[in-house]
Request: fold
Amino acid sequence: MAKSFLNAGDWTVIVAYLLGIIVLGSWFGKDQRNTRDYFLGSKDIPWWGIGLSIVAAETSALTIIGVPGLAYAGNLGMMQLIIGYVIARVILAVVLVPHYFKGEIYSPYQILANTFGQPARQTAAGFFLLSETLAAGVRVFVACIPLQLILGIGEGWSIVLFVVLSLIYTYFGGVKAVIWTDAAQFGLFVLGGLFTIFYIPHLFPGGWSEVWNFASTHGKLEWFSSNFDPNTHQWLGWKQLFEDPFNIWMGVIGGTVMVMSSHGAEQLIVQRVLACKTVTDGRKALTLSAIVVFPLFFVFLLTGAMLWTYYQHNPMPIPLPEARPGISKNDFVYPIFMLSGVPHILKGFLIVAILSAAMSSVSSALTSLSSVSTMDFFKKALPHKSDEFFLHFSKTSTIVWAALLIFVAYWTRQVTSVLDIAFKLRGLTSGALLGGLLLAVFWKKGRSTPIVIGMFASLLVMTYLSPLVQGTSWLPAALKIQLKLAFAWYTLFGMTVMISSALIIRILISPSPTRITVLSYTGRLMLLAGAIGLTYYGHFFDTTVAVNEHVRIHNIGLMQDRQIGIIISSALAVLGLLCILAGVIVKAAENRNQSTRKIAVS
Reply:
């Protein structure tokens, strides 16, 4: 299909870009001598280049086509989520960046080792390797679906092409090549978005004002939603806040915590901050990314609104392909406009913008996976090997990870359920990673057992709450939760479970009079709250439902409120009893130990 829309000039632009980015990236590897050069870029990269690279790394090809697709189908509501993106970067710059520069650190998981020991570090690193391998491989597969439409090549060849091209300059140039090519690619897709929002009004007689007024009149420029309505009788109005993917509460709270994990506890982004020279440079890089990310997403959301306006006045020359796993019909709108609505040569540059985002996400995944596997696992296991050995080992591991990404992408073609698992798994592990890192920063030295148990507890609870389990037929109806949690809340829920579990385990394995008292009083408060909740939901709602039984919609809301309320109240009561019992047991054990010590002294 692409052959009928692209001419020799377009192909010249595309091929020249691909060759140029490979040459540019490979050139940065000429001075490499050790893993410090390969994974930290010798710490001589300017902060502004790293700041632009951070934004490019999180902006995949799916972002370039998917964000306009969201606005095309709806409105600018995603801007509420971007508010959280900005807040999170400011918090990370103030709180976490100084800890990245206490010694020479190659990944955030080294901070866990410094506080809790190797088991905590390797558990967190293992979580990242598993989730990022699946997520990056699936991103490759999904990104190749629209690229197949654009370039006219098969999915299989698209997968191999973009992984191999990204591998070449990542292999030779390391993180320095990835950062500088990311910065160049950032400029390309920003220019592509800006061109679109100025080019489309040019096609209308009334220009910008006509396009803007038409989109505004039809609600395409609306962006704010609170989604709090106590009259719905769903969790007294709060349920919709957790289920709707775009509202102001989800953006400011859920989005902030989600990005604190992705930019503070996951190596994909943190590796770039670690390449900065100083704490000040690290903070500047994150601050620059915070300044840039908001207008960037606004440009692509506005692109979607303008595409909608354009196609309300013009027929779509290519029928929208059917939705595929991981990509909706609307995600094809921007690629179709690139192929059919833009003059030649400029068309080639717009396509290059998508290609640059695709290659940026692949190269970022490769260097982060190679860094964690080498520095967090193998370097500790092979302490007597030279820097030269580990430089070669790092480059070899980059090839291995590239092969794994191709395998996951091909596997996803055959087993589409892999796609859901991969996308969900990142959300299931992000809370555990962020919780572990925050405890490493704010706790004093401690054992790794609470951290490891807390991470696995978080993973198990979030897996249970996720559609991966709730949507299965084998789970009994009584165990199903009437809640479809929006993606941005996963990290907050998972972090809460992780930190709570780690605190309880730490108290149990490290008894002291103060901690025993805390455990006992916490248990009493939880038991009291559970008892009040059970009384309220068991009695009040029984009466209300009986009185209003003829109002079925009202009753359905009340019954769901009651079901969730009873589950939460019961859980609080049980946890309270367990805490009280644990406090009694620990206190008894402590008394026995004191008695034994007195006998031994006497």
Remarks:
- Residues 232-237, 540-556 have pLDDT under 50 and may be disordered.
- The two ends are 92 Å apart (CA to CA).
- The first helix runs from residue 8 to 27.
